[in-house]
Amino acid sequence: MPKTWFITGASSGLGLEMTQQLLTQGHNVVAAIRRAGALTKLAQEYRERLDIVQLDLVEPERIASAVRDAFQRHERIEVIVSNAGYGLFGAAEELTTEEIDRQIATNLAGSIHLIRAALPFLRKQGGGRIVQVSSEGGQIAYPGFSLYHATKWGIEGFVEAVAQEVAPFGIDFIIAEPGPTGTNFGANLVRAKPMDAYDETPAGAVRRAITDGSFEIKGDAGRSVSAIISAAESKTPPLRLALGSTAYSSISQALSARLSALEAQRGVANSADRQDL
Q1: Calpha distance 45→177 (Å, rounded)
Q2: What's residue 164's pLDDT?
Q3: Tell me, what's the pLDDT at 184?
Q4: Catalytic positions, please?
Q5: Helices 13-24 & 221-233 angle (0-180, nearest 10)
Q6: Is the pLDDT of residue 188 over 90?
Q7: Is 0.90 topped by the overall pTM?
Q8: Which run of H or of E encompasses 172?
Q9: Mean pLDDT of the 190-219 span
Q10: Which helix (H) or strand (E) holds 43?
């Protein structure tokens, strides 16, 4: 049966790919975009099933009204996809206050405001599904992406808590964690002004890899989106969905290392308990 999906960041990258795939499959899409006119061709082709909304995630009041209006226009919205965001690259010391604030406002606070705005309507209709597009960077970290990771680790913690809060209402979540994927993420990457001091550091090495194209990208956007849609349409979706062999390998190694480090601290951890219990 056709469903209605609400997707932020629908004009490029995974958001655009998802919008196209869903329309092709016969679904309805409320496509939230920042730049007016970005989906003109799709609008002409799918006039009856594509509802375009202009939205910038740094405007919380606009997020709330856009979600409210979308639910009023459509009888039911089954899936909310929090996808909008961008990458900020630079060693922490290289970043400006403005770059930091906008990264957090868009990737973290914007996603939080979107989810909070949708919850009352999903509760009222008896349930629904929220897909939060995160990254392998929500569980691992590359040097030079500290603020990007801060937003992804942050939104994953938020979602994991909220998922427990709203499960009784029939609302569930999927955290999609793609690895490096063939989208326009790199082209839209905001880069801080580099400092010479970081040239011969891990952050400098990653900067060179991005610049010279040697940063390996294995993920396929179409296949990744198909996997997200399939998970969202399944009866019991996973809370976290790793996408791509790089994401699987990186997350697996990071979790194994953290677990090993934790086990080594068992005695210290237990020694910190109260002794009068």
Answers
A1: 31
A2: 98
A3: 67
A4: 134, 148, 152
A5: 60
A6: no
A7: yes
A8: strand 171-178
A9: 91
A10: helix 40-45
Taking the CA atoms of residue 67, residue 101, residue 146 and residue 84 in that order, the dihedral angle to the nearest 10 degrees is 20
Identify the DSSP state of 93.
G
Gap between the Cα atoms of 81 and 273, Å rounded: 42
Strands 171-178 vs 240-243: parallel, antiparallel or unpaired: parallel
CA atoms within 13 A on the CB side of 206: 17
d(CA 259, CA 269) in angstroms, rounded, equals: 14
Mean pLDDT of the chain: 95
> How far are the Cα atoms of 105, 114, 166, 178 from residue 138, in angstroms, in the given order?
17, 19, 22, 10
257, HSE (Cβ side, Cα atoms, 13 Å): 8
Cα(90)–Cα(197) distance, rounded to whole angstroms? 12
Give 84-140 pLDDT, tens digit per residue.
999 999 999 999 999 999 999 999 999 999 999 999 999 999 999 999 999 999 999
Hey, what amino acid is at 55?
L
**Arithmetic mean of pLDDT, 60-78:** 95
Using alpha carbons only, give the angle 152, 158, 164 rounded to the nearest 5 degrees.
135
Neighbour-count burial for 1-38, b at 16+ CB within 10 Å, e otherwise = eebbbbbbbbbbbbbbbbbbbbbeeebbbbbbbbeeeb
Tell me the per-residue pLDDT of 176-187, one tens digit each, with 9 for 90 and over: 999 888 776 667
Reference 151, options 229, 228, 99; nearest CA is: 99
The pLDDT score that the predictor gives to residue 226 is 97
Query: Which DSSP category does 144 fall into?
Result: T
Nearest-5° Cα angle at 25, 22 to 26: 90
Strand-pair partners of 130: 80, 173
CA count, 13 A, side-chain hemisphere, 245: 3
Angle at the Cα of 120 (from 117 to 124), degrees rounded to 5?
145
